[in-house]
Write a structure and sequence with these properties.
This protein has 185 residues and is mainly α. It has two domains: 57 residues; 112 residues, 2-Layer Sandwich (Potassium Channel Kv1.1, Chain A). It has eight helices and three strands; from the N terminus they run ααββααβαααα. The protein has a three-stranded mixed beta sheet. The longest helix is centred in the first third of the chain and has 28 residues. The radius of gyration is 25 Å and the shape is elongated. The protein starts with a helix and ends in a 5-residue tail after the last helix. The relative contact order is 0.08.
Length: 185
């Protein structure tokens, strides 16, 4: 990574030196040739940048796109989720974990799916909530927090939400107070 950054910095300083034209090159009669030379230089730089991006993506530090589809194994149940859904709550552990920066370090099952050690009956409603928030509109009824058939499941869900993100980010203040009694920022 450091070598790539040093190489890019060296290329940038070299390019800035190349951009300074000699006084004789700046005359109006040489302008078409100078423009062709600058255009070629720009195209070469662009091709080099594309090559470096491709090399970086294939290396350990991957440039991830927010529309990446992530395949998850949630407590033995396979599901697919957009990266932007998992990273929609800024500052949450869920967003940090699936930002793309740590993909090589995260636990995976034998098929390469990211493994989440939570029951799907709890993790699924959280994903559904985040999906619903992503397409919430002013005209539609507000997205509500999931409901559970018993108190134990509700408490387990709240524990998981607190683990993966900040309570205030997932639920509005009043629902959060009802869920856990105390809401923190």
């Amino acid at each position: 990574m450091k070598r790539a950054a040093d190489s890019i910095a060296a290329s940038a300083s070299q390019l800035s030196l190349n951009d300074e034209a000699a006084p004789e090159e700046q005359s109006s009669e040489n302008l078409p040739q100078l423009l062709k030379k600058k255009q070629k230089n720009l195209e070469e730089r662009e091709a080099e940048l594309e090559r470096r991006i491709t090399a970086f993506e294939q290396g350990t530090g991957q440039i991830q796109r927010p529309c990446d589809v992530l395949h998850l194994n949630v407590g033995g149940t396979l599901t697919a989720v957009l990266r932007k859904t998992l990273t929609s709550v800024d500052g949450s552990m869920l967003a940090s974990r699936f930002s793309g920066r740590w993909d090589d370090c995260l636990e995976k099952d034998k098929d390469g799916n990211f493994f989440i050690d939570q029951p799907m009956e709890l993790f699924g409603p959280m994903i559904d909530y985040l999906r619903a928030k992503a397409c919430e509109t002013a005209l539609a009824p507000p997205v509500t927090t999931p409901e559970f058939e018993n108190e134990k499941k509700r408490r387990d869900f709240v524990r998981m939400v607190e683990y993966f993100g900040r309570c205030i980010s997932f639920f509005n203040f009043f629902n959060c107070n009802k869920l856990i009694g105390i809401c923190f920022l």
